[in-house]
Amino acid sequence: MIFSNGSPVKTTPDRLNTVIAKLRERGCRITPQRVAILKIFLNSQAHPSVEQVYEQVKGNFPTTSLATVYKTVHLLTEIGEILQIGSAAGGNRYDGNKPYPHPHLICTTCKTIIDPKLRLVEQFTTEVAKTSGYRIVSHQLDFFGICPECQKK
Ligand SMILES: [Zn+2]
Ligand SMILES: [Zn+2]
Asked: Is this prediction's pTM over 0.85?
């Protein structure tokens, strides 16, 4: 299990190919639309919603349906290559760039979501495991606030 908080990862062609291979293994048909959807989710650090990705893909592939984007998210969730951000964030926001558990910072005004740099998450996890006897497999840690841009308004 990776609990790293490293800086945002630029998705390598390798990761895209790995994800495509995993989907193929499940009998999933890889269309150019689906590759476009995958690329957006895997490269975006903006934690997009399904609708936002749909709007982006539609530019190049006008026949894409919202259902296809939902289906792709569902498949990515099943193979552990995308992280759904806690429903406290309004649901429907995803991180396909860093699919492992990590904290999020959510602006309650403009709904921007970023990955705050935190060094203590690993320590938290170790402490929770030690004091409870649980083997920790995941966590959800969301912070809410008002971003600097919104504070200016
Ligand atoms: Zn804001
Ligand atoms: Zn994130």
From this structure: no
